[in-house]
Design a protein that fits this description.
By secondary structure, the chain is mainly α. The protein has a domain of about 250 residues: Up-down Bundle (Fumarate Reductase Cytochrome B subunit), CATH 1.20.950. Helix content is about 65%, strand content about 0%. It has 14 helices and three strands. A three-stranded antiparallel beta sheet has the order 2-1-3. Helix 5 runs antiparallel to helix 7. It binds protoporphyrin IX containing FE. Protoporphyrin IX containing FE (HEM) binds next to helix 5, helix 9, helix 11 and helix 12.
């Protein structure tokens, strides 16, 4: 009994010594100086006294800027970027979901429209005589814009939906090859798109300035409400809307694409927020970090691109199966006189006044 008592006393004393030694030897991670300011290089929070310090620790980790990794930029001090998780959830959730609905929605809408209305015919039938509508330069620029956009759209859509739609069908190896190739193509074809965008803008901007006839055209639903086609110059109000969407979205997609190609070199999102705050009184955050800037650029790039894809699907429909005689304008450049009179009567009059209405027999005759 005496022996047991002495044993317990020795054990207790030893434990006391070990604990006190550990306390003395454990370095004190001083977090702050006397004023409470963080000390350079120190681990934040009172980590030695348990979980009560966790909030401060994580706050500092998320805030970053406690130091930099040698040779890296200032953002490298950021160990966890909370907005990254929000971005990831958005990128894998609402973004692809709403994009899919928008694209499937427009396809469904056009199919229903086509089933109900069928192809819009030239009401007087083809005259057999044609007028030159677009020059070779105009058609070349259009097709450069169209082909580059289609390649960008397909390779871009693969980045949003490929993993869900393509991967299970073609397998990992083929999907990997396609996606890597598609990514390079996407990066380079972007420049062809930008060149074509400038060409199309320069060639057609004068014909796309709104005028009083556009209002009548819109009120008559482009000829669907009431009788007869509303008059229009070279481009009607519907086409002008397409033109401006293409130009404005095209510029926006190009700028955000540039930011994605050259990470951490632009501050367009932060600048836009600041401009919006000062002009419209919005309260967008302007202290956007370099990483969040990239995330916002990626999201914006996708939203703009999907919107443009939806609009262009409708455009392709009208320019091909939807309307008799329209496609000729962009293939041979020659349109039937009756088609031109029906859809662009004021343009035909203008051409007539300028003596540029040299009608030719239809190429097919
Ligand atoms: C296979 C795809 C396409 C076809 C069949 C097509 C067809 C056409 C046709 C026939 C016109 C002339 C309409 C007229 O004579 O008034 C036109 C004009 C135009 N196209 Fe396309 N196009 C296609 C793709 C694209 C793409 C991808 C873009 C842009 C990214 C685009 C942008 C434009 C613009 C801005 C105009 C002038 C405004 C308008 O007519 O709406 N096109 N297209």
């Amino acid at each position: 009994m005496k022996l047991a008592k002495s044993f317990l006393t020795i054990l207790f004393a030893t434990m006391l010594v070990v604990v006190s030694m550990l306390t003395v030897l454990t370095p004190s991670y001083a977090q702050s100086n006397d004023n409470g300011a963080p000390v350079e290089g120190a681990v934040p929070g009172n980590t030695t006294s348990g979980s009560s310090s966790d909030a401060e620790l994580w706050r500092q980790i998320r805030k970053g800027g406690q130091g930099t990794v040698a040779g890296q930029n200032a953002g490298s001090g950021l160990m966890i970027q909370s907005q990254g998780e929000e971005w990831r959830q958005m990128r894998n959730g609402p973004l692809p979901r709403y994009s899919a609905w928008a694209i499937l929605g427009i396809l469904l809408l056009l199919s229903v429209f086509f089933a109900l209305r069928g192809r819009m015919k030239i009401s007087k039938g083809a005259s057999g005589r044609t007028i030159t509508r677009f020059t070779l330069l105009e058609r070349g620029s259009h097709w450069l814009l169209a082909s580059s956009f289609i390649v960008l759209a397909l390779s871009g859509l693969n980045l949003i939906f490929g993993k869900t739609v393509l991967l299970p069908v073609i397998g990992a190896s083929a999907f990997s090859t396609i996606t890597i190739f598609g990514k390079f193509v996407h990066n380079y074809v972007g420049f062809a798109f930008m060149v074509a965008l400038v060409l199309v803008a320069v060639l057609w901007i004068v014909h796309n300035i709104p005028n009083r006839h556009d209002l009548v055209w819109i009120l008559k639903g482009g000829g669907m409400i009431g009788k007869g086609h509303p008059p229009a110059k070279k481009f009607n109000a519907g086409q002008k809307i397409i033109f401006w969407i293409v130009i404005l979205c095209g510029v926006s997609i190009s700028m955000s694409g540039w930011a994605l190609l050259n990470p951490f070199t632009t501050t367009m999102m932060a600048d836009t927020a600041a401009i919006s705050n000062s002009i419209f009184g919005t309260e967008f955050a302007t202290n956007i970090g370099a990483i969040q800037e990239q995330q916002l650029q990626a999201t914006w790039h996708t939203i703009m691109a999907v919107f443009m894809i939806v609009v262009i699907i409708a455009h392709i429909y009208i320019g091909s199966v939807g309307m008799e005689g329209a496609l000729d304008a962009m293939t041979s450049g020659e349109v039937d006189e009756n088609w031109a009179m029906e859809h662009h009567s004021l343009w035909v009059e203008e051409m007539d006044e300028e003596n540029r209405l040299a009608s030719k027999p239809h190429p097919a005759e």
